[in-house]
Write a structure and sequence with these properties.
- The chain is mainly α and 220 residues long.
- It has 2 domains: 114 residues, no CATH class; 87 residues, Arc Repressor Mutant, subunit A, CATH 1.10.10.
- It contains 13 helices and 2 strands; from the N terminus they run αααααααααβααβαα.
- Helix 2 packs parallel to helix 4.
- It is elongated.
- The protein starts with a helix and ends with a helix.
């Protein structure tokens, strides 16, 4: 840990005011301080600000060595400030640490690889908002490597029940239906009996849009 990072730790661990958050971000990555300041100006203090500060600290660590002029110009745009505002408002309301990590990865990627349309970014944010921690668990279970020694027969429902013993079967089915509605998955035959190998390989049920969500989950 560098001397500078060590000096910033007390701020990062007790971010309860807009001033604390801005001080940290401006010190770590000065060129992103302005848009962050504009967004945080009207945000309430306390626990919500602590969540926002936690995510902003992570973003600052992710991009502190970034020297891209394209990125530096992008964060000055109205599109980025709007996306930043949308994301940080959700972060402030989000109690799940795993979901806050998704927002962190999303914003870090938006800065380091600008170019995606505003509408596509907003769709991702809205999808993140709809996802509960159990949705993330089910998505990870769907992406799990198949058992190398499956039984002769099985169903996707049986496979998910085995991979998610802490989640009720009805709850799993409800979550899959919700993920289908979000166009993240297209798994519509949970109880159909098939070969054991086919029942184990559920990765095909993730849509191309869902694959993007998985990428963020894997990075978080």
């Amino acid at each position: 840990m560098t001397e500078k990072e060590n000096e910033l730790l007390p701020i990062a661990t007790n971010m309860e005011s807009t001033i604390d958050v801005l001080a940290f971000v401006s010190s770590a990555v000065p060129w992103i301080g302005s848009p962050v300041s504009n967004v945080l100006g009207g945000m309430s203090l306390g626990r919500k600000m602590g969540r926002v500060g936690e995510v902003l600290q992570g973003i600052s660590n992710d991009i502190k060595s970034l020297e891209s002029e394209v990125s530096k110009n992008y964060v000055k745009t109205e599109d980025f400030e709007d996306i930043l505002e949308q994301a940080l408002k959700r972060v402030g309301e989000e109690r799940s640490e795993d979901k806050r990590k998704l927002y962190r990865v999303f914003l870090s990627d938006a800065i380091t690889s600008p170019g995606e349309s505003y509408d596509d970014q907003l769709r991702l944010l809205r999808t993140f908002e709809e996802l509960a921690p159990d949705h993330l668990h089910v998505l990870k279970a769907l992406m799990q490597e198949p058992d190398q020694n499956p039984g002769s027969m099985g169903s996707p429902s049986q496979t998910l029940n085995e991979r998610l013993p802490s989640i009720n079967q009805n709850r799993i089915e409800d979550i899959v239906n919700q993920l289908n509605d979000l166009r993240v998955t297209n798994q519509t035959s949970l109880k159909v009996m098939m070969t054991g190998r086919g029942a184990q390989n559920l990765r095909h049920s993730i849509t191309p849009y869902g694959q993007r969500i998985i990428e963020y989950i894997n990075k978080a």
